[in-house]
Amino acid sequence: MKNSISRKSLAAKKLLIGYSKDPSFPSFVALVLLIIINVSIQPNFFSYSTIKSNFMTFTPLILASMAQGIIILSGSLDLSIGAGMSLLTCIMASMMTDSIINVILVVLVGIISAAVICLFNGSIIGFVRIPPLISTFATSAIFFGLSLTIMPLPGGYVPKYFYKWYRGDVLGFIPVPIFILLIGIGIWLIIKRTAAYRYIYAVGGNEDGAYSSGINVARIKVMAFLMASFFIALGGLCLLLSTAIGDPRAGNAYTLNSIAAVVIGGISLKGGKGSIAGAIIGALILGLLINIIFFMHISSLYQNFARGMIIIIALSLATIPKLRETRDKIL
Amino acid sequence: MKEIIRAENLTKRYDSVAALNKVSFVTHEKEIIGLVGDNGAGKSTLLNILVGLFPPDEGKIYIYGKEVKFSSPGDARKKGIEIVYQFENLVEGMNIYKNFFMGREIINRGVLNNKIMHKKSEEALEKIGIIRDSNQLVEGLSGGQRQAVALGRAFYFGKNVLLLDEPTTGLSLKEVDKTLERIRLIRENAPMSIIFVTHNLQHIMPIADRIIVLYHGEKVLDKKTEHTDIGELTKMITTRIKEEEHIDRTKYI
Lengths: 331, 253
Fold this sequence. Notes:
The structure holds two protein chains of two kinds. Chain A has helices at 2-20, 25-41, 48-73, 81-95, 100-126, 132-150, 160-166, 176-191, 195-205, 207-212, 217-243, 252-264, 276-295, 303-330, and strands spanning 169-170, 174-175. By secondary structure, chain A is mainly α. Chain A has a single domain (24-330), classed as Orthogonal Bundle (ABC transporter involved in vitamin B12 uptake, BtuC), CATH 1.10.3470. The radius of gyration of chain A is 21 Å and the shape is globular. Chain A starts with a helix and ends with a helix. The longest helix of chain B is centred in the C-terminal third of the chain and has 17 residues, at 173-189. Chain B has nine helices and twelve strands. In chain B, helix 4 (114-127) crosses helix 5 and helix 5 (143-157) packs parallel to helix 6. Chain B has a single domain (3-89, 159-250), classed as P-loop containing nucleotide triphosphate hydrolases (Rossmann fold), CATH 3.40.50. Chain B has helices at residues 43-50, 73-78, 96-100, 114-127, 143-157, 173-189, 201-204, 230-238, 243-250, and strands spanning 3-14, 17-28, 32-36, 58-63, 66-68, 81-84, 107-108, 111-112, 161-165, 193-198, 210-215, 218-224. Helices cover 34% and strands 28% of the residues of chain B. Chain B starts with a strand and ends with a helix. Chain B has a six-stranded mixed β-sheet with strand order 6-9-10-3-11-12, sandwiched between helices. In chain B, strands 2-1-4-5 form a four-stranded antiparallel β-sheet, with helices on one face. In chain B, strands 7-8 form a two-stranded antiparallel sheet. Chain A binds chain B through residues 193-195, 198-199, 201-202, 205-206, 208-216, 268, 272-274, 325, 329, and chain B through 51, 53, 72-74, 77, 83, 85, 88-94, 98, 102-105, 107, 110-112, 139-140.
């Protein structure tokens, strides 16, 4: 009995030591600290209703960050995520009626639209070889223009039962935003076991090496965007359901916030290093930070300042494992 | 010994400059060929053609008597040609076994079989004297260790030809010895030709069966190692004298 306990504690210790070398470890520590601060200023932080309300806000950002994470891991970047999510809310809100079949079909249209948007972005970067910073900046303008064409002002229609569903539960105990997030995580757990997902790391980490290993680099870059489209579609859907309208500007904040979350979560902006788990942690950190600012009655004007500071702190913390590794090599 | 590669009149031009000019050679099973030459001699161009990075403008390549044409590195790999670059083509953020099977993963029902890949990579590395936990990240390895992993991978997958692009450059003396020993082990364990490109004659002489010298895109010497020496090779590398002309010229020395 004693032996099995000590074996378990040894395994846990090994796991912790192993994880401490992971690029997302400093952000995990930061997340724990932020949770402690949140609990101290918001005593009912772990209550069911607070968790549900927090995730209603966090889920679109978490999903956008997962999408951005996959794209950045492949060595690209997507400055059009926010505009893409806005476009999805406009497309879906402009087509919805009260019929359940219509809602299901419109959600499918949303998923297909996300795939088309991402295929367009990926093809420009992978096949035409325009740098992602420029190409996705340009496509963000295109998507914004399309959104304005569909819906010059925020509006459209989302059936009441549908957006109320987002505020409800699945099986009586899983808040819907968490349920949608679990679907996203499930999709990620499936794709991370495929060769294509591994090639995303290879292309992001060493493009020449990946090419000389027989990997079709352009195709993998497009594939990264296509994989990300699942999460953008789910994020766009959550955004639509949380606001209950289509809005050409609804997703604006998600572009930079998703990049910030990815960086905070320890994914290298050069690509090839980090994990989507880190992006999820990064998004949670940003969400909790905004919570703190709200509950401490700090003006929302300081949100950007605080976000910038936390990115710098997170980046500094992220260098610790690297410094430790260099020290180990020297010694 | 069976002939593996027969290259005939390989030519590659960049505008009016011939980076490779009608170079022909053959390689045999279990043969190590030292490919030497100064900067700009055409070594990299020849390697890039053999590895499928670009096709020659003229000339043909045969493997075991059958003409082959490569349109990508993947094509060359399928024909059993592997390369180990000077700056190894490994992905730093990945562990050893993932790098080992990069582009050739073992997949069961659409899902990566990491357990088998982990096991097989360790077995293959052990065969050429590398005992290492293949779960380790590549970024934590020294230059020599990375070179060893790249060699192990090329040995495991290479059926016909192993191309080594300056594999000893930047390594410590100890690591150079180990790398040369591993190359010998590969020759003993596999019936492939090994083309070893280097600037360092001290490294190639003890290990090569034959030396080919390129000068400004032309083959100027192709001799068994025991029939040449560092002095002659240095002259051939630095002076534009073809093999026959060189023999003639010795009359006047």
